[in-house]
Amino acid sequence: SMAKAKTIFYCQNCGTQSATWIGKCHNCGEWNTYVEEVVQSATGSKKQSLLTQSQPIRISEIDNTLSLQRLHSGIEEINRVLGGGIVPGSIVLLGGEPGIGKSTLLLQLALSLPPSMTILYVSGEESEIQLKMRAERLKQKNNNCYIVNETNTQNIFQHIDSLHPHLIIIDSIQTLQTNTIESSAGSISQIRETTAELQRFAKSTSTPVFLIGHITKDGTLAGPKVLEHMVDVVLQFEGDRNYGYRIVRAIKNRFGSVSEIGIFEMQQSGLREVPNPSEILISQHSDEVNGIAIAATIEGLRPFLIETQSLVSPAVYGNPQRSSTGFDLRRLSMLLAVLEKKCGLKLNAKDVFLNITGGIHIDDPAADLAIV
Ligand code: TYD
Ligand code: MG
User: Fold this and answer.
1) How many angstroms separate the alpha carbon of residue 265 from the centre of ligand 1?
2) How far apart are CA 253 and CA 235, in angstroms?
3) CB within 6 Å of ligand 1 — which residues?
4) Average model confidence (pLDDT) for the chain?
5) What pLDDT is stored for residue 52 in this prediction?
6) Quick one: which of 134, 200, 234, 288 is 20 to 30 A from 349 by CA?
7) Ligand nearest to the CA of 136
8) In terms of Cα–Cα distance, which of 274, 293, 313 is closest to 362?
9) In 3-state terms, what secondary structure has residue 339?
């Protein structure tokens, strides 16, 4: 029979241990505070071998040449948000709502890498045939991109041992399961432990690992939140379903700035990079239209142009309406008050509607001028 992990139940209130689950803590008297925690995994010896023995070293003697050699993916927008490419041994979490395009983006990333690199794409959600169909839509080829439909981490590490991939993609972390923990896939302890296993592997072999993580609309799924402090980089993939464009935003980056964004457009054949965001953020008008102004703004190190559209009309029903899309409503009210007081514009009896084209949200004060 298979070796079982050694677990201990801990009272989450006072820390008292127990070999079995108990309802009421005999130490502090609290109810339902006992949680099972793994103290020694079934494959403990194997795990140990992954860890190299620690040894104090002078800071001047630390060899960081490898970690400085960032891997450049074929997707410039991804290189940009990562701070200039993929850092060896880094763990990158790509979070986003189901259907936003996470699997598409990372398969595209895998296929964009040079053929000299072996990539292992682990899918716990889709069959090999589904991934093949997606790859065919993307019209990109890489003969060293391997797909495996697997959720057990012990099996995944066996594949890694025989393939020696240069990059690993896990789709998704919520589907993974390790033998050392009894709870079901997607539970906090499974997410935490499988990520810890991948992290030890990434650090000890300098192999970068990308994890896909699902987040529901209201961000209720706790898993990815728990993950955020365990990984090196957290990328958020967002976008409006009504528009084809998608934004990748770094919300944590141990190796770069968090103000960079990458912009894409979802097309029939995958995600197209948008190096000049103004192209999708400005609607095309042949002649001058009232109420439209162009503003310059900046995200990270990249400046771009946005379009503000406004409509001012007499208020018919008593209280004038103020409505804003993509711009803070209170800031709009403040700007209107300034125009009223300082410029003598009679706006208190007018409805005011404001829209930032393209569905983007702007909080850069530089846009105020265009709105005014
Ligand atoms: P997917 O990557 O499966 O999303 P996620 O992994 O985040 O759940 O892609 C979601 C949507 O993208 C899906 O509705 C189909 C669409 N899509 C395209 O429009 N063009 C394409 O080339 C591909 C591959 C997908
Ligand atoms: Mg997917």
Assistant:
1) 11
2) 8
3) 96, 98-104, 134, 137, 266, 268-270
4) 84
5) 61
6) 288
7) 1
8) 293
9) helix
Residue 203 is predicted with a pLDDT of: 92
Kindly report which listed range (32-46, 146-160, 239-253) carries the lowest average pLDDT score.
Answer: 32-46
* Distance between CA atoms of residues 90 and 67, nearest Å: 9
Q: Phi and psi (nearest 5°) for 221?
A: -60, 115
Query: Edge-to-edge strand order for the sheet containing 322-325?
Result: 292-299, 302-314, 350-356, 322-325
Nearest residue (by CA) to ligand 1, atom 21, is: 270
Cα–Cα distance measured from residue 170 to residue 122, given in angstroms and rounded to the nearest whole number = 5
- Which residue's alpha carbon is at the smallest distance from atom 12 of ligand 1? 101
Q: Which residue has the tokens 């630390």?
A: 62
Q: What was the pLDDT predicted at 200? A: 94
Q: How far apart are CA 106 and CA 96, in angstroms?
A: 13
Question: Over the range 165-185, which residues count as b (16 or more CB within 10 Å of their CB) and which as e?
Answer: bbbbbbbbbbbbbbbbbeeeb
**Cα of 274 to ligand 1 centre, how many Å?**
17
Which residue's CA lies nearest to atom 25 of ligand 1?
Answer: 270
User: What is the 257 CA–ligand 1 centroid distance (Å)?
Assistant: 28
Residue 334 in 3-state DSSP? helix
Cis peptide preceding 172, ω within 30 of 0? yes
**Strand pairing report for 145-149 and 17-18:** unpaired
Question: Do 226 and 209 meet the contact criterion of CB atoms below 8 Å apart?
Answer: no
Element (H, E) at 161: helix 153-163
Q: How far apart, in Å, are the Cα atoms of 70 and each of 47, 77, 93, 152, 245?
A: 27, 15, 17, 29, 27
pLDDT digits (tens, 9 = 90+) for 246-269: 889 898 999 988 878 888 989 999
- Residue 168 corresponds to which amino acid? I
* Ligand index nearest the alpha carbon of residue 108: 1
Which numbered ligand comes closest to the C-alpha of 266?
1
235 or 36: whose pLDDT is higher?
Answer: 235
User: Would you say the pTM of this structure is higher than 0.85?
Assistant: no
Substitution site in 94, 104, 215 for ligand 1 pocket (most atoms within 8 Å of beta carbon): 104
Q: Which residue owns the Cα nearest ligand 1 atom 22?
A: 270
Residues pairing with 306 in the sheet = 295
Average pLDDT over residues 328-352: 90
Residue 165 has pLDDT above 90, yes or no: yes
